[in-house]
Design a protein that fits this description.
This protein is of the alpha/beta class. It has 9 helices and 10 strands.
Length: 244
């Protein structure tokens, strides 16, 4: 069985409800989907669609109020949260690095490892070896995002969750991160699930797309088809920018 034929992550009727203004709203509403290993998935939709809320349920940063997430056919609740997040890692809009050097940040997740090659992990995300001894506070946002990515990859995750990781970057840096994501997905057979508010970015990344509106999965398929020839009325309204 090839890399892309393996189903690595499933959601079944996944639901999350949160209190708001004295009532309860569903940020994720009965969402069922299967993710294959080694593919890139773009989660798109208008603001308030529940995209980030959905992402946070996949590695238990938040807990659902209904349904379940399965990782290799086992409920994610059967894994210790720390162990689960090593295999289903997440990067956020603003990268967080610990005080100290880049090397300190990389070695933080590597306790118990007999050998640690900072140069290798930096090169893998497109940074030169001399970055290892630079202070984390001296890096640009784009460089910090690469270091955060290198730190996640050291743990050899199967799934990488990305919550708008380029939203704070300039267009050139954003393109470089996009190219890096695609390269790593191919090289490592890594499943990438990325939330983006930018349809053009989703088109550049390609792969598969999921359109969410008001917590519901409206349609899914090839990203290019989803964003150029959607099959649903809500999909057409989203593409024509009627949904904000």
């Amino acid at each position: 069985m090839s890399c892309n034929e393996t189903i690595i992550l499933k959601t079944r009727e996944l639901t999350r409800e949160v209190p708001k203004n004295g009532s309860v709203i569903r940020t994720v509403d009965s969402l069922t989907f299967e993710f294959n290993k080694g593919l890139v998935y773009n989660v798109v939709g208008p603001s308030g669609a529940g995209k980030s809320s959905f992402l946070r349920l996949l590695n238990r940063l938040d807990e659902p109020t209904g349904g379940e997430v399965l990782y290799y056919d086992k409920p994610v609740t059967s894994y210790a949260p720390t162990d689960l997040r090593r295999k289903i890692s997440m990067l956020f809009q603003i990268p967080y690095l610990f005080p100290g050097t880049v090397r300190d940040n990389l070695s933080f997740c590597c306790s118990g490892k007999q050998e640690f090659d900072a140069d290798f992990h930096l090169r893998r995300v497109g940074l030169k070896a001399e970055y290892a001894d630079m202070g984390a506070d001296d890096l640009s946002v784009g460089e910090k995002q690469r270091v955060a990515l290198a730190r996640s990859l050291f743990l050899e995750p199967d799934v990488l969750l990305l919550d708008e990781p380029t939203s704070a970057l300039d267009p050139t840096s954003s393109r470089k991160i996009e190219e890096l994501i695609l390269s790593l997905a191919r090289e490592l057979c890594l499943t990438v699930i990325m939330v983006t508010h930018n349809p053009d970015q989703a088109l550049r990344l390609g792969g598969k797309g999921l359109l969410m509106v008001k917590g519901k999965l409206i349609e899914s398929g090839d990203t290019a088809e989803l964003l150029t020839d959607p099959s649903s009325d809500l999909g057409r309204r989203y593409v024509s920018k009627e949904l904000e």
